[in-house]
Amino acid sequence: MLPARTHRRRVLPFAAVAIAASLLAGVAQADTSTPADPKLIADLDAILADPRLATAQAGVQVVDTSTGQVVYQHQADALLTPASTLKTVTSAAALELLGENHVFTTEVRTTGSRYSSVLNGDLILRGGGDPSLQPKDLDDLAAQVAAAGITTVTGRVLADGSRYDSVPLGPGWAWDDEAYSYSPQISALTVAPDAEYSMDTVKVTVTPAATAGQPATVTLFPAEAPVKFAGQIATGAAGSGNSADVERRRGVNELALTGSLAVGSAPVDFLTTVENPAGYTGDVFAGALARHGVKVLRPAKAATGTETSQALVGHASRPLGELLVPMLKISNNGIAEHLLKEIGKVKGGQGSWSAGVTQVNGFLKANGLELPTGRQVDGSGLSRYDLVSASKLTGLLKLAPGKPWFKTWYDALPVAGNPERMVGGTLAARMRGTAAENNVHAKSGSMGGVDNLVGYATAPDGRRLAFSILVNNFPGARPRSVLDAIAVRLATGPAVTPSAPAAPALKSFNAPALHDAPAEVPATRWEECETLGRC
């Protein structure tokens, strides 16, 4: 989630999803209940004939949302890895079950008794699941404590993340992703150091020394982050480039510093996750209290969640509907996981992944979307255990326009070709100069061997077409231009000649020929392509 820094790691091999033979036997076809559009079928068949898909699986479905007609499908019931397109399910369920005005409240509470300006007890920082809590919010809470007349706390700051369960990482998340900002530990009390809500991370800034050969300066934001350094980053000669790297060692808050940064270079920022997000947040709050003249006599520690306490001050997040913008536009995994656990807490009484999934499945079933059987284990799609079909996703897309929350949801989806980060999001650099630009609203989803796009295209005649394109198990070049060509074709309408070869048709959209698409960037971090728009 950090545009200033590209983390590299090896691409993990993974097993192909086992799917019933009857699902794999499907071929491209239009719904037979109404006359098929042979031109659309021919065009999309030609696009899907790309050689990069020869050994891959592709599940595709296109639906006219005004009539419900399936106008095109190809293996639409095959269960495939959704990656971040699963966020469409989680976000829709959150809007339905929690409401777009739902807020997350962080409280400061007191234990013990107060004598004048002295609190003879503890301050509890109780997390309410806010995925957007920032250091400035904790500073504001500290200022409110000081304004309430408290100058001394004889006890501690107790960090309380007990609203959600104590399981920090989702089922099936990769162990070697844990240090990176897209794979934060999930807690009801967490802090994000940036405007894009990269929760449970610390920003590490590396600044070269004034003289080559001297160590670079390394600083933290927030400064109270409980991390230690090992090694150092050197200052290289002018023009020597940047090989600086910061890596958190697994399971500990120790950052390995390596490489060098050329003298005269601009500072470089890194984001890395922190072990124990609630404790980290408590430390940042304790630092804010000290800055505001509130002396806490004992070190911060974890709350049990059972303390008897009284409310003192609080902070409310932005409403859920607004938090969907960074969640969907820039594919913020942490927000998605908080929404799933919050659904479980509010509707099922338990802030866990399993409780949240149970409630989401209930939402899908209540709206007739329980079949075909799939599997959801997290909220973001970070897990390889997640399975979904193109038909289920288009079913959700077909359902959504009739919901009162649809405009909020639709506007939060990335908009193809729009360069504004919080408008175009992960599609900002895609489909520019085509009929899809500022037309297609869609959620992308990618990881090694997975490239998906799910959303809406408005045809020239005004029809809103819902589409789901799930491409899994390709071993080489990323077939992104295949996905984009389908979306562009839906937005263009019947202007494309059905018999035209796929490559020339794409060139007419100012996109590369299918067989000329660049190879997948090797060893990229999870969803680097999505977040940074680099592939």
Automatic annotation (TrEMBL):
PROSITE patterns: TAT (PS51318)
First-tier enzyme category under EC: hydrolase
Pfam families in alphabetical order: Peptidase_S13
GO molecular function: serine-type D-Ala-D-Ala carboxypeptidase activity
Keyword tags: Carboxypeptidase, Hydrolase, Protease, Signal
Single biological process term from Gene Ontology: peptidoglycan metabolic process
UniProt cross-references to InterPro entries, sorted A to Z: Beta-lactam/transpept-like, Peptidase_S13, TAT_signal
EC number annotated for this UniProt entry: 3.4.16.4, 3.4.21.-
Signal peptide residue numbers: 1-30
Gene3D superfamilies in UniProt: D-Ala-D-Ala carboxypeptidase C, peptidase S13 (3.50.80.20), DD-peptidase/beta-lactamase superfamily (3.40.710.10)
UniProt similarity note: Belongs to the peptidase S13 family.
Protein name, per record: D-alanyl-D-alanine carboxypeptidase/D-alanyl-D-alanine-endopeptidase (Penicillin-binding protein 4)
